Amino acid sequence: MKYWLLKSEPSDWSWDDQKAKGAEGEPWTGVRNYQARNMMREMALGDLALFYHSQSEKACVGIVEVIHEAHPDPTDDSGKWDCVTVKAVRDLLRPVTLAELKDDPRCADMPLVNRPRLSVQPVSAAEWAVIEERAAED
DNA sequence: GCCAACGTTGGC
DNA sequence: GCCAACGTTGGC
User: Fold this and answer.
1) Does the predicted model carry a pTM greater than 0.70?
2) What topology is assigned to A3-136 in CATH?
3) So where are chain A's domains?
4) pLDDT grade, residue A121 (50/70/90)?
């Protein structure tokens, strides 16, 4: 099983929107970046991803699960772009902010920290554990 | 709201 | 195939 991170602007598609979809989930459409697309193609059923709010909040807020592997993005006419479908699993106990991750040397290699514009990115098991650990602190 | 970073487009 | 121009993203 692999771990990922999905970025969304809350004004566009928020964690609340995602949770409202429940078990049905929602296709992660609109990705128009080759690297991000290639990551989605590597996702497998049951992989988990952090749901990250960019812009105003800049924090990981929840966890989603891949329930459909990469398939053509219905919002794309060119046939070049894919999406996966994800469903909300649970909230993080508290949001883990970008500022904290930047401060944590164990997260220095995360694309979130050093390649801020990549909207779909891998997360190592170690990094995932750090975020879970931080979310469990108060 | 600004600006830096970076990806994409299009002319040559 | 290179590179400049341009557009977009996202942190500050």
Assistant:
1) yes
2) ph1033 like fold (3.10.590)
3) 3-136
4) very high
